[in-house]
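STRUCTURE:
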């Protein structure tokens, strides 16, 4: 039994990147030998095991043969006679097809180190074109390493075009597509993910809502802002629908998120930014009614924590380091929290009248902010 560190851990180590996850390949072993050593199996038909102490994945060396559509349409053959080179050749890119033994020696049968030095993303073998998920993976790697000067080899890009022109992309599950998309949103140059898919013809099949945006370099460059993936997604979607009629924008975002199985966090932030970005950017010019309506629409009185992400994204869109809304809205929220429903009920307000009185006082607070009067002075004078 021989064990090798493989894939991304070897690649990132050679690039002097931090290594967060380690994957291992085991050559010359049977499933029973792995079980005997305390490894836990992952699934029934897939030769991958979890180390009992580290929790890292150890896969038996295997070969694969295309037997159906999509990235799941493969038959695997795992046996002690499968060599390390046979296992590595089934991988997507040469930079991911290297291994390291326990002495630190790099095993590199497909010239991955050379491609690292030349900054090239190149497929290992023609079998690359059998797995449509690799179109998304290569686009994601391009987004990760473009700042280092990496480019996609033209023959590899041609195989990506062939996959895009076939019906293979249609057989990817929404979960796997979203997983790659979400990870791409966290890469240094997330915009390159979009433009790479457009170059190979895959964007229309996978994300048709983003096709028009692919030629808008200004909007795409906003995705390089140092933001978390949900905020980048919100900016991306708000820019993607900005030329559509206002009554269609929300429906397009909802449809996209439903099809891609996007988490609610991503969907809600995108919907809110789409509806309020312009108002956040120009908050100081809003009248009292508009300020209150924005606060109510975003439910900021109850959930003020969402304001930070929205303001941050709005600043990126506006190209400004600060917005007046950053100070003005929290100021309003602090004043509004001083409105006591219990006090109003003791004054005789009930039911619908109570809600109306709360909104009236909230509106007065917004007006006082504009006029510069102190909150509460109007009610004191009435008393």
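SEQUENCE:
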């Amino acid at each position: 039994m021989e064990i090798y560190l493989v894939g991304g851990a070897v690649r990132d180590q050679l690039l002097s990147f931090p290594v967060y996850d380690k994957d291992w390949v085991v050559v010359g072993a049977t499933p029973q030998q792995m079980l005997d050593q305390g490894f836990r199996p992952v699934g029934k038909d897939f030769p991958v095991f979890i180390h009992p102490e580290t929790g890292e994945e150890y896969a038996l060396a295997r070969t694969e043969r295309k037997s159906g559509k999509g990235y799941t349409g493969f038959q695997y053959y795992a046996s002690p006679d499968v060599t390390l080179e046979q296992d590595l050749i089934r991988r997507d890119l040469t930079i991911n097809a290297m291994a390291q033994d326990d002495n630190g020696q790099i095993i590199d049968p497909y010239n991955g180190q050379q491609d690292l030095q030349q900054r090239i993303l190149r497929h290992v073998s023609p079998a690359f074109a059998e797995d449509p998920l690799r179109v998304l993976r290569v686009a994601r790697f391009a987004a990760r390493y473009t700042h280092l000067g990496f480019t996609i080899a033209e023959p590899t890009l041609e195989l990506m075009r062939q996959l895009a022109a076939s019906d293979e992309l249609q057989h990817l599950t929404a979960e796997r597509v979203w997983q790659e998309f979400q990870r791409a949103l966290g890469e240094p140059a997330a915009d390159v993910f979009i433009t790479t898919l457009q170059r190979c013809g895959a964007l229309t099949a996978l994300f048709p809502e983003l096709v028009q945006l692919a030629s808008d370099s200004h909007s795409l460059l906003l995705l390089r802002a140092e933001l978390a993936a949900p905020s980048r997604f919100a900016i991306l979607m708000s820019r993607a629908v900005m030329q559509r009629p206002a009554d269609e924008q929300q429906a397009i975002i909802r449809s996209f998120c439903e099809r891609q199985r996007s988490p609610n966090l991503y969907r809600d932030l995108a919907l809110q930014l789409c509806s309020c970005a312009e108002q956040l950017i120009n908050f100081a010019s809003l009248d009292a009614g508009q300020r209150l309506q924005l606060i109510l629409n975003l439910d900021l009185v109850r959930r003020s924590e969402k304001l930070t992400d929205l303001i941050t994204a709005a600043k990126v869109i506006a190209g400004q380091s600060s917005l007046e809304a950053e100070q003005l809205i929290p100021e309003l929220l602090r004043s509004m929290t001083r409105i006591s429903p219990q006090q109003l009920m003791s004054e005789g307000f009930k039911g619908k009248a109570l809600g109306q009185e709360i909104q009236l006082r909230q509106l007065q607070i917004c007006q006082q902010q504009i006029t510069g009067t102190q909150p509460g002075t109007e009610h004191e004078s009435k008393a």
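REMARK: The radius of gyration is 27 Å.
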